[in-house]
């Protein structure tokens, strides 16, 4: 294994840890739908960056930032039309993203793939993960009261709109970190599915966060191993193409299905 | 010295006045109950007192005031993996208090260790409400704002909550502003009543205010009410 491959695997695992934590709070905040939309908003930016030959993550980051501010604004309006607006943005981002992305790059933009990393990209990625995990650690008390009751949080002196904005920005950063290997369609799943597994298995907050993170990291490591050593599997007359992103999310879904069999601890 | 002075308070949401020209005062240890039909602006008044809504007019709290707030019904998701222990600790941390404070608070509101560790969505209405009172008590408030604290619980639970508030109020000389529809509670408990129907309809002791004429004025239709004398 080359050093750059090792960088990729370490960064993917760290990103999975951040995704597990972020996802746990997204589930408790009942915003798994909004979370999925955020990841799709990356696609138009990614496609345009490929067209203009700039770093795809810069393009994705730009549209993610715009999308985050838009969703935050919609949340603050708090009207019944928010769901509709989010649904429209979701479809529009996917359609425009698919139109502008060069067709030879489309599959990778949607579903991700394994890429080697330079030391600089690795370090930037690690800084991103540390920012996400650090934010969750520092803001956890405010997030907890805010998701229980925004009104009670405000009465406790917490600026709910500000903490929601920070949360959404960190959510987008997590999406950006996972985009490289999972693609715009699947990165949201790494945030939501392991957290859904965690919630299935426990009633307590600390165990929930721990299980979500461990499941997320395990999904990534098992997915990478499967995709690397068994890129295609033939069962009878059917040949399965075990690309990285789909392999990781299939493993995560498998863990979720297993969790349905277990009683909460 | 008054804890709170409200003078000529107006609240407009979009094009409609929700509260018009409200004035009243609250002294230490007083128990003010706000009475009025749905849509009268009672919850809006509490939110203005918490400085959560824009308004015009004067709302002046004494400089040493510490407010505890018990909101109207919160409906937590049944599977939310959060307990009152998590919530109380979080509030302690935000206010810079030691986590051990929660044991004393739990004892005061009658939450056992077991209930503290139960997910909030699994608690009964009364237990949940006691937890909210406990949450409000962190930071040693000298004023409690209660928004229909018994709206979502059965009658024995209701008595328990009222008993608890009474006890805390007497023990710590708390001033209380409570929104309530419960006329017998108001009669037994309040030292002052503010009747609202967007405007201030009346203000006075329960004996002065809870008359058929005033209640008809507040609710817009005759209200049947039987007052039983209590020895307490």
Keywords for this structure?
heterodimer, A: 265 residues, mainly alpha, ABC transporter involved in vitamin B12 uptake, BtuC, 10 helices, 2 strands, B: 232 residues, alpha/beta, three-stranded antiparallel sheet, 25% strand, disordered C terminus
What is the topological layout?
The complex is a heterodimer of chains A (265) and B (232).
Chain A (H helix, E strand, L loop, with lengths): L2 H26 L3 H20 L4 H22 L4 H19 L2 H9 L7 H30 L1 H6 L4 H42 L3 H25 L2 E4 L2 E4 L2 H16 L6
Antiparallel strand pairs in A: 1-2
Helix pairs in contact in A: 1-6, 1-8, 1-9, 2-3, 2-4, 2-5, 2-8, 3-8, 5-8, 6-8, 8-9, 8-10, 9-10
Chain B lengths: L3 E10 L2 E11 L4 E5 L6 H8 L6 E6 L5 E4 L13 H11 L6 H9 L3 H4 L8 H13 L5 E5 L7 H18 L2 E5 L3 H7 L2 E6 L1 E6 L1 H4 L2 H8 L13
Parallel strand pairs in B: 3-7, 3-8, 5-6, 6-7
Antiparallel strand pairs in B: 1-2, 1-4, 8-9
Helix pairs in contact in B: 3-5, 5-6
Q: Kindly name the structural category of chain A.
A: mainly alpha
Radius of gyration of chain A: 18 Å
**Unreliable stretches of chain A:** none
Report the average pLDDT across residues of chain B: 86
Tertiary shape of chain B: globular
- The chain-level structural class of chain B is alpha/beta
> What is the assembly state of the chains in this entry?
heterodimer
Task: Report mean pLDDT of chain A, rounded to a whole number.
Answer: 89
Q: Count the E strands of chain A.
A: 2
CATH architecture of chain A: Orthogonal Bundle
Total of helices of chain B: 9
Kindly provide the radius of gyration of chain B, computed on alpha-carbon positions and rounded to a whole number of angstroms: 18 Å
**Number of structurally distinct domains of chain A:** 1
Q: What's the arrangement of strands in the largest beta sheet of chain B? A: 5-6-7-3-8-9
- Element-level helix/strand string of chain A: HHHHHHHHHEEH
CATH superfamily of chain A: ABC transporter involved in vitamin B12 uptake, BtuC
| Main beta sheet strand tally, sense and closure of chain A | 2 strands, antiparallel
Strand content of chain B: 25-35%
